[in-house]
Amino acid sequence: MIESDDAIKDQASLQTSLISPDLYLAYIILGITVLLVLIFTIVGILRGNIKKTLISVGLFAAVILVSYFGFAGDFGMGFEISDTETLSLSGAKWIGTGLYSFYILALVAILAMVVSTVKKAITS
Q1: Over the stretch 6-59, which tens digit does the pLDDT of each residue have?
Q2: For residue 101, what are the contacts with CB-CB under 8 A and spacing of at least 6?
Q3: Phi then psi dihedrals of residue 73, to 5 deg
Q4: Inter-residue long-range contacts of 27-34, CB under 8 Å, 24+ positions, other chains counted
Q5: What are the two backbone dihedrals, phi and then psi, of residue 5, each rounded to the nearest 5 degrees?
Q6: What residues contact residue 94 under an 8 Å CB cut-off, 6+ apart?
Q7: What is the Cα–Cα distance from 69 to 76, expressed in whole angstroms?
Q8: pLDDT at residue 120, rounded to an integer
Q9: Burial of 68 per CB tally in 10 Å (0-12, 13-18, 19+)
Q10: What is the DSSP string of 27-39?
Q11: Which contacts of 38-47 are long-range, i.e. CB under 8 A and separated by 24 or more positions?
Q12: What is the pLDDT of residue 46?
């Protein structure tokens, strides 16, 4: 290690002064990216078939709702996140919702690939 590394490890104010500007820059870039994605998504929706888009968004929302109310159960409280924090009941339920949503969407994608392959094999 270089001697100056020890100074960075020992002084929290030095760590903050070195890392904070990079974090602010990352937040600004993330904000610009999200804004551009939203703008281009809305423009794409308005130019394309709105009915198909709304059906897709509705189906995605249905998957989230089924995951939240149907599968994500009561995991309880007390999961330690760090030495000072524990995971809340709501946090545990949303994590379960995300996992089950991923499982459902992955299963749908795999089934779509299998059906597409079988259809292509039958027609060929």
Answers
A1: 666 667 676 667 777 888 899 999 999 999 999 998 888 888 788 888 898 899
A2: 63, 64, 67
A3: -90, -170
A4: none
A5: -65, -35
A6: 68, 72
A7: 16
A8: 94
A9: middle
A10: HHHHHHHHHHHHH
A11: none
A12: 82
